[in-house]
C-alpha cells in the first residue's frame, strides 16, 4: 500500500514537471516565432565601417522613414523627391548627424539611425558619440554591434554608456571586456623622469615592471644625475637618456618626445620618480582616461582631502575628479591631444608653473576641465602611490616661471619641445642617446 502511494506521488510529480517543461518550451517557441516575425518586418542594420554607399538594409530603413513622413531624412542624405538611390555615396557631416537625430520621429529606431550615421560619418565618430544624449541602452547595443567590426568605435560607444549609467551591471561588464580588447591593440608608452634619486627611480621602475599588464614602451629621462642612476639603468636594461641638467620641463619633454615622436605610442603616461604603481593592471584606468579626455593628472591624496578642492567627479576614468589644484607627478595624454597641444613650454626653467601651463593649454583647446570662474583640472588617483620625495626648486626660478606663466596665460597654440634651431639640434642629439 505504501509502495503504491509512493509510485502515485512520483507519477504526479513527474507529470507536473513535464507539464511545466511543456509550458516553458511553448513560451520560448512563441518568443522565437515573434522575433522571427519582427525581424522579417524590421530592417536589421549591420555595422559596415568604411562603406560609402547605402547597403540594402540601410536603403530600406531610409525609405521606410520617408514613407512614414520623415522626408527631411532623405533631404539630409541628398535624396530628392523621396527617391532613395543606394548607389549614391553617402558621407555624413557632424551637422547632418545632429539634424538626423533631431528630426527623427518617436517611432524611429534610434539604434538603426545611429548605426547609419556611424557607418557613413566623415568625422571622428567619437564626436557624435560623446555629444549625443541618447539612452545608455542605445550606446550599449551599438557597442555590441560594432564590437567585431571596429574596436575603437565599440570602445567609445560603451564608454559613453558607462558615463551615462556608471552603475549599470551589464554596461559595466561590457565596458570592462570591450575596453580590454581595445587597449590590447594599443601601443602604450610609460616615461619616468628622474634627477639624483636613484633609489626612488629603482622602486618606481620595479613597480612598473611588476604591475603593468601587456606590452608597453618604457623610457627613463635622467636630467644629468650625479649619483648611480645611469649605472642602475644600464645594469637593469632600462632605455634612458644621459644628458646635462636642464630642468624638469625639458626633462619631461625628452620622455614625451621619445614616446610620441620616436615610438609613436597611442597613449603616453609620464611619471615622476616618486610616484609609482601599486596594483596590477594599474595603467588601464590611465589609458581609458587619456583616451576619453585627452589629458589627465594625478589626484594626490592631499588634493582630494583638502576642503572644497574637488569640484565634481568620482575619480574614475569615466568620471574623473575636477580639482582646483593640480600636481604633475603623473600625467597621461592621448596621441591626438599631444599632437594638437604639443609639449611643455621650454621657456620654463627649473621647477614651477610649467606643468600647470601645459595642463591649462589642453583645457583651452577643449579637453576636459574648465576656465569658468576658476581653473579646475581633471585628475584620477587609481593604481598609484606617491612617496613625495624632496623637490629640487629654487625660489628665484620659481618666481620667474610664475611671471612667464602670467605673461603667456592667454596663449593656446601648439608648443615645440625647443625654443629655436640651436636648441632643437641639441635636443634631438639628446634623444639619440637613448638606447632603443
UniProtKB/TrEMBL annotation:
The name on file for this protein is Glycosyltransferase family 2 protein
The protein's matches in InterPro entries, at most eight in alphabetical order, are given as: Glyco_trans_2-like, Glycosyltransf_2, Nucleotide-diphossugar_trans
Please give the organism: Alteromonas salexigens
Task: State the taxonomy lineage.
Answer: Bacteria, Pseudomonadati, Pseudomonadota, Gammaproteobacteria, Alteromonadales
PANTHER family assigned: GLYCOSYLTRANSFERASE, SLR2126 PROTEIN
Record domain Glycosyltransferase 2-like: where: 191-284
Amino acid at each position: 500500500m505504501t509502495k503504491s502511494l509512493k509510485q502515485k506521488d512520483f507519477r504526479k510529480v513527474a507529470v507536473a514537471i513535464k507539464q511545466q517543461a511543456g509550458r516553458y518550451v511553448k513560451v520560448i517557441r512563441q518568443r522565437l516565432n515573434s522575433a522571427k516575425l519582427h525581424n522579417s518586418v524590421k530592417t536589421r542594420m549591420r555595422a559596415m565601417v568604411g562603406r560609402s554607399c547605402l547597403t540594402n538594409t540601410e536603403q530600406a530603413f531610409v525609405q521606410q522613414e520617408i514613407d512614414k513622413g520623415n522626408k527631411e531624412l532623405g533631404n539630409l542624405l541628398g535624396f530628392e523627391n523621396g527617391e532613395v538611390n543606394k548607389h549614391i555615396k553617402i558621407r555624413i557631416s557632424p551637422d547632418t548627424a545632429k539634424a538626423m537625430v533631431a528630426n527623427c520621429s518617436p517611432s524611429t529606431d534610434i539604434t538603426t539611425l545611429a548605426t547609419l550615421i556611424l557607418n557613413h560619418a566623415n568625422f571622428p565618430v567619437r564626436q557624435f558619440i560623446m555629444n549625443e544624449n541618447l539612452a545608455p541602452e542605445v550606446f550599449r547595443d551599438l557597442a555590441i554591434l560594432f564590437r567585431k567590426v571596429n574596436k575603437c568605435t565599440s570602445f567609445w560607444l560603451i564608454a559613453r554608456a558607462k558615463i551615462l549609467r556608471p552603475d549599470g551591471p551589464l554596461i559595466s561588464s561590457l565596458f570592462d571586456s570591450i575596453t580590454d580588447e581595445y587597449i590590447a591593440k594599443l601601443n602604450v608608452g610609460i616615461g619616468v623622469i628622474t634627477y639624483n634619486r636613484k633609489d626612488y627611480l629603482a622602486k618606481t621602475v620595479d613597480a612598473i615592471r611588476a604591475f603593468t599588464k601587456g606590452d608597453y614602451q618604457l623610457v627613463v629621462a635622467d636630467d644629468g644625475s650625479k649619483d648611480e642612476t645611469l649605472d642602475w639603468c644600464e645594469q637593469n636594461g632600462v632605455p634612458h637618456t644621459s644628458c646635462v641638467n636642464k630642468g624638469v620641463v625639458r626633462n619631461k619633454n625628452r620622455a614625451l618626445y621619445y614616446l610620441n615622436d620616436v615610438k609613436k605610442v597611442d597613449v603616453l603616461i609620464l611619471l615622476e620618480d616618486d610616484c609609482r604603481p601599486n596594483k596590477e593592471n594599474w595603467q588601464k584606468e590611465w589609458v581609458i582616461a587619456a583616451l576619453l579626455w585627452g589629458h589627465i593628472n594625478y589626484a594626490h591624496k592631499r588634493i582630494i582631502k583638502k576642503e572644497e578642492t574637488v569640484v565634481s567627479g568620482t575619480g574614475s576614468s569615466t568620471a574623473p575628479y575636477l580639482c582646483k589644484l593640480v600636481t604633475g607627478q603623473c600625467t597621461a595624454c592621448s596621441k591626438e591631444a599631444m599632437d594638437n597641444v604639443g609639449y611643455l613650454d621650454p621657456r620654463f626653467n627649473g621647477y614651477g608653473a610649467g606643468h600647470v601651463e601645459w595642463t591649462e593649454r589642453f583645457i583651452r583647446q577643449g579637453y576636459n576641465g574648465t576656465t569658468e570662474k576658476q581653473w579646475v583640472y581633471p585628475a584620477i588617483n587609481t593604481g598609484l602611490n606617491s612617496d613625495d620625495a624632496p623637490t629640487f626648486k629654487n625660489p628665484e626660478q620659481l618666481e620667474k616661471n610664475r611671471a612667464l606663466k602670467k605673461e603667456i596665460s592667454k596663449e593656446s597654440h601648439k608648443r615645440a619641445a625647443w625654443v629655436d634651431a640651436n636648441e632643437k639640434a641639441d635636443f634631438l642629439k639628446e634623444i639619440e642617446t637613448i638606447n632603443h
